[in-house]
Specification:
mainly alpha, single chain, elongated, about 0% strand, about 110 residues
């Protein structure tokens, strides 16, 4: 039974190619940020509480790394607040919301 659970927990979902490219680009940006700060992979991995191998997976944009580890690495680089920009300006969502709004046919009564 343990082997079945172990195999199930290690299964990876398949990403669309464009999503893989986005992760790869993000990984490259994280790597460049590390290099600009003149930090070694060992230094960042140790400060983030992860292994150098996991850091390399992040820098390659691997989807198998949890978002929590990505955030820890971003924190070491001083970029953790960048995560707050995700879905910040939801243009499509606002347009869909506006389409669903109902308007009254006449102006409200004044008191």
């Amino acid at each position: 039974m343990y082997n079945i659970l172990q195999v199930m927990s290690k299964s990876n979902s398949i990403l669309l190619p464009k999503l893989e490219r986005l992760l790869e680009e993000m990984g490259e940006q994280i790597k460049l940020a590390r290099l600009r700060r003149k930090l070694s992979a060992d230094q960042v991995a140790e400060r983030a509480g992860t292994s150098r191998r996991t850091l390399y997976s992040i820098e390659k944009g691997k989807s198998s790394v949890s978002i929590g580890i990505y955030i820890k690495v971003l924190n070491v680089l001083g970029l953790e607040k960048d995560v707050l920009n995700i879905a910040k300006d939801d243009v499509l969502g606002r347009k869909l919301q506006d389409i669903g709004l109902t308007t009254k046919e006449r102006a409200p009564k004044r008191n």
